[in-house]
Give the backbone structure.
Amino acid sequence: MNIEPTELEKAVLLKVTGRMDAENAHEFEQACERWITHGTKHLIADLDGLQYVSSMGLRCFLSVAQKLQSGSGSLILCGLHGLPRQVFEMTRLISLFPVFETTQQALATL
Amino acid sequence: MDPPVKRLTLPASAGSISAFSEFVRGGAVAAGVAAHEFEKLDLVLEEILINVARYAYSPETGEVEVAYAQASAHKLRVEIADFGRVFNPLEADPPDLSRGLAERPIGGLGVFLVRSMVDSIDYRREENRNILSFTFPIDGGPSGNE
């Protein structure tokens, strides 16, 4: 898994590519927490290049979203498709996140 | 005649998951499982093996055996066995998927996802082994109508 951050005016964009599994999911959570500690309110996860996520990854998405929400922020998901989209739908987590096709659409809501 | 069974034994740790995935993928390819289903199979294996690594032996360590065979034209059967304490992950309560973000518990989704992706799954304790046995659809669709 690779995480590429970009600081934008109203949010931080994290482009996540590859596979998020039990061995590396904590890296995503830690990356998000560093931005939260830094004062970031809105994180946009661009998941267009994410091929795989298991329950460990879902835990991390949920935990980060809960932290951001408690500070009136949000974790926004973009580009979900394939298996990652299926697991977000099966677990009904998809209804708990703002979800957009593209990062441009997400940015327009902030 | 019974179909040939392939077996692989490795330490019960997160580090073994990718080797087990590759091993079972060999069977999936041979059986004709569609390529877009491989990640589902990886996920099922990961969720089960992480449970074994965490609960079956902890704090000690041990081994886990994964075996597979083509069960029928439409199903691949996979069995995951360990020698740890009695542990049936299928007894876990189903997660409450209706809660809002703030109240949603962060655990319990692994077994739920496994159940959603396999055709059937069973636990049995045989001698001193925990055996979790599942069938995975080869044609990508439900295969319960044979």
